[in-house]
Design a protein that fits this description.
The complex is a heterodimer.
Chain A (H helix, E strand, L loop, with lengths): L14 E4 H15 L3 E5 L15 H5 L4 E3 L4 H13 L3 E5 L10 H8 L2 H4 L9 E6 L14 H5 L5 E4 L3 H13 L4 E6 L6 E4 L11 E4 L4 E5 L3 H14 L4 E5 L2 E3 L3 H11 L2 E8 L4 H12 L9 E5 L10 H4 L3 H12 L2
Helix pairs in contact in A: 1-7, 3-4, 8-12
Chain B lengths: L37 H8 L3 H26 L13 H8 L7 E3 L5 H7 L3 H9 L8 H4 L10 H15 L14 E6 L6 H13 L3 E7 L2 E2 L2 E2 L11 H5 L3 E5 L3 H16 L5 E6 L18 H8 L3 H11 L5 H23 L19 H15 L2 H5 L1
Parallel strand pairs in B: 1-2, 2-3, 3-7, 6-7
Antiparallel strand pairs in B: 4-5
The chains are: A alpha/beta, B alpha/beta.
Organism (chain A): Candidatus Phosphoribacter hodrii
Cofactor (chain A): thiamine diphosphate
InterPro entries (chain A): THDP-binding (IPR029061), Transketo_C/PFOR_II (IPR009014), Transketolase-like_Pyr-bd (IPR005475), Transketolase_C (IPR033248)
């Protein structure tokens, strides 16, 4: 894809801001760069979205480019298909993870398949932004991690950002991509602050090694990246060296980065909030046993949500992986 | 308080003639209905004899194409066919009302609209033969790929129309710039949430889209009364724009009402809803058996309302076409049948590796790896074949 090599976003880099505002400035840059980029969603105009990610954009770009839609996710996604057919690049905001299912048919049946069924005549350069994950004490349907549904669907690409720098640059790279991209935003990290550098630093579909280590490779994405970095810090105090990789792209996976690391460490933990059964961790474990068979010192461990509907918030911390569960998995691997 | 008239939901009303509100210009016997609204009669009066003969030719040609496709399915050359038999006038009348810049979003049965748009009919057979899932370039004739998901295309059409608005291609007064979109769907689709959502989005955005519902009375085995209690064209009012019912077997009436609706859309007056009251003379698809769920007496009633016979009778009576013309069209239709048959049989099978092409617009490691693995696996058989 055409990597953005210079900025037309904030006036000066580096800038320190929140993950949410990193996306805002990324959207702004993309809209300034390409007049065909339009934002669609519920309450994204004057309100700026329930997480204020689109705050100020309707004022600056107008109601035709920042569209407050009727409250109907299938309608939003279906009309996004039509806008894309007309040459626009819709960026759809789904208000909460658990609301995307109404739009599922258009995502799987139309957006994912359009290029193939038209034998390449028609692409679907659509970005679907989904705030995902739990840990914010929300009511039902507001804390889900449904990325595996979309990663399972050929024709879609799925990414997840974990920090302000990536949020800012990955959203611009996703919009520039000619393929549909499901863009997961870790909602409990929206207010995390960090520095945005002047260059993206890597392609949209490349993983990032955030901490080097020798004992165990820890793979994570989205909200679990910070958790895993904290776990690595704690492990280091106990004399264990964890390598933490932020996958960033869930489909396609950066298999090279995963394989290279696990062949070195011989051990791997995959961490995500989503339920483990048929989650990303299952695919990654299959990849590792196929590609790293002779390097493995222990089976691949998965740390994730239990295989239940997302629980009421008073017990969500029991459901969600945390630092201790990551370290517990590391202990089990080191015992082999 | 509850003083709205409740429509009669009783079964069997499809045997009726569409009711007093139905716009009709030619009776099933081929007689002109002089009481039809003036604005529609004016449009028809402005047509030349050549235009009128063109409608007849379209109807005959597309029926012949459809019959050939059904035959090809029966002979095992197509896996499936969705026949338009009985719906030719609804499709040709509306299809001929479109301008080149307009955009049509079909279901999987709009062979007649495709014909009017200039899409090569053989392209329509590809998905039914299993050589592709459509595959034509929708932007070449502004005719989107067939959509099998019931009702999904109504939202795609509405979004496209929202794009037209953003391009400033509505209400400029420039006949070559102002653009309308037409969304085709059936009576069964009106039960889908997507269709209702498309009416909402088009309404609140005042988008230039015409919702063209071919009410062919049957959604596979389920009759109208399983889908709706109220007449379908009444629905538009609830979404804030006009709707009407037209005799879907009267090609001239369909042409006139669609032209008015498209003109209104192009000029910025927003969406409208047309219910073309017609009948699916054949099965839903070649996999269906309508004798299990509907009476032959009903089919007999609708045979008397045939869209081609009424136009032929009127053209002949008015002296606008003669026996030589009808014979010439019949011969052309036979040529078309032979031509599409030959070219359908010549459609090449795709290569196995083709399935990996076009899934993504940019390089994708899974596609590349699996394509290579598949090719290597296939290559492993080559020596064995000669051994």
């Amino acid at each position: 894809m055409a990597e953005r090599t210079r900025t037309d976003g904030p006036a000066a880099y580096p800038v320190t801001t929140t993950l949410a505002k990193g996306i805002t400035s990324g959207l702004r840059a993309a809209m300034e760069h390409d007049p065909k980029v339009v934002l669609m969603g519920e309450d994204i105009g004057k309100l700026g979205g329930v997480f204020r990610v689109t705050e100020g954009l309707q004022k600056d770009f107008g109601e035709d480019r920042v569209i407050d839609t009727p409250l109907a996710e299938a309608g939003i996604m279906g009309t996004a298909v039509g806008l894309a057919l007309r040459g626009y690049k819709p960026v759809v905001e789904i208000q909460f993870d658990g609301f995307v299912y109404n739009a599922f048919d258009h995502m799987v049946s139309s957006i994912a398949k359009m290029r193939a069924r038209s034998l390449g005549h028609v692409g679907m350069p659509i970005v679907v932004r989904i705030p995902f994950g739990g840990g914010i004490g929300a009511v039902e349907h507001h804390s889900e991690s449904n990325e595996a549904y979309f990663a399972h669907t050929a024709g879609l690409r799925v990414v997840a950002c974990s920090n302000p720098h990536d949020a800012h640059w990955m959203i611009q790279q996703a919009i520039a991509c000619p393929d549909p991209v499901i863009f997961y935003e870790p909602k409990r990290r929206y207010w995390d602050k960090g520095e945005i550098a002047a260059e993206p630093g890597r392609g949209l579909f490349q993983a990032a090694t955030l901490r080097q280590g020798t004992d165990v490779t820890v793979l994570a994405y989205g909200p679990m990246v910070r958790t895993c970095l904290q776990a690595a810090q704690a492990a280091a105090e106990e004399g264990r060296s964890l390598e933490v990789i932020d996958l960033r792209s869930l489909s396609p996976l950066d298999t090279g980065a995963i394989i290279e690391s696990v062949r070195r460490t011989g051990r791997c933990v995959v961490v995500h909030e989503a339920s483990t059964f048929l989650g990303l961790g299952a695919e990654i474990a299959a990849l590792i046993q196929q590609e790293c068979f002779y390097s493995l010192q222990a089976p691949v461990a998965r740390v994730g949500g239990y295989n239940v509907p997302y629980p009421p918030s008073r017990i969500e911390e029991e459901f969600l992986p945390d630092l201790d569960r990551v370290l517990d998995a590391v202990d089990r691997l080191m015992a082999y | 308080m509850f003083d709205l008239p409740i429509p009669d939901p009783s079964p069997g009303r499809r045997l009726g003639d569409g009711g007093p509100d139905m716009i009709q210009v030619l009776t099933p016997e081929g007689e002109r209905v002089t009481s039809a609204p003036h604005e529609y009669l004016e449009i028809i009066d402005a047509l030349t004899d050549e235009d009128l003969r063109g409608f007849y030719r379209d109807l005959v040609m597309i029926r012949r194409f459809d019959a050939e496709a059904t035959a090809l399915q029966r002979q095992g050359e197509l896996g499936l066919w969705a026949s338009l038999l009985g719906q030719e006038a609804a499709q040709v009348g509306s299809g001929r009302a479109l301008r080149p810049q307009d955009y049509a979003f079909p279901t999987y049965r709009e062979h007649g609209v495709a014909w009017c748009r200039g899409v090569d009919p053989v392209n329509l057979m590809g998905m039914f033969r299993g050589v592709n899932h459509g595959g034509w370039d929708p932007n070449e004739k502004n005719f989107h790929l067939y959509t099998i998901i019931i009702g999904a295309q109504t939202l795609h059409a509405t979004g496209y129309a929202m794009g037209v608005q953003r391009d400033g291609a509505v209400g400029t007064g420039d006949d070559e710039r102002d653009t309308a979109v037409i969304a085709y769907f059936g009576d069964g689709a009106t039960s889908q949430g997507d269709v209702s959502e498309s009416l909402i989005f088009a309404g609140v955005n005042n988008s230039p889209v015409v919702f063209f519902c071919q009410n062919n009375q049957w959604a596979i085995s389920e009759p109208n009364e399983k889908q709706t209690r109220a007449p379908l064209y009444h629905r538009a009012r609830g979404f804030g724009f006009p709707g009407l019912r037209v005799d879907g077997n009267d090609v001239l009436a369909v042409y006139a009402v669609t032209k008015v609706a498209l003109d209104a859309a192009r000029s910025g007056q927003g969406p409208s809803f047309i219910e073309a009251f017609t009948y699916r003379m054949g099965a839903h698809t070649t996999s269906d058996d309508p004798t299990k769920y509907r009476m032959s007496a009903e089919v007999e009633v609708w045979k008397l309302r045939d869209p081609i016979e009424r136009l032929k009778a009127w053209l002949a009576h008015e002296g606008k076409a003669d026996g030589a013309f009808f014979a010439q069209v019949a011969a052309e239709a036979d040529e078309l049948g032979a031509d599409v048959r030959a070219r359908c049989l010549a459609l090449p099978d795709p290569a196995g590796t083709d399935m990996f092409d076009h899934v993504y617009g940019e390089r994708h490691p899974v596609m590349e790896r699996e394509r290579a693995e598949f090719a290597a696996y296939q290559a492993g058989f080559e020596g064995a074949n000669h051994g």
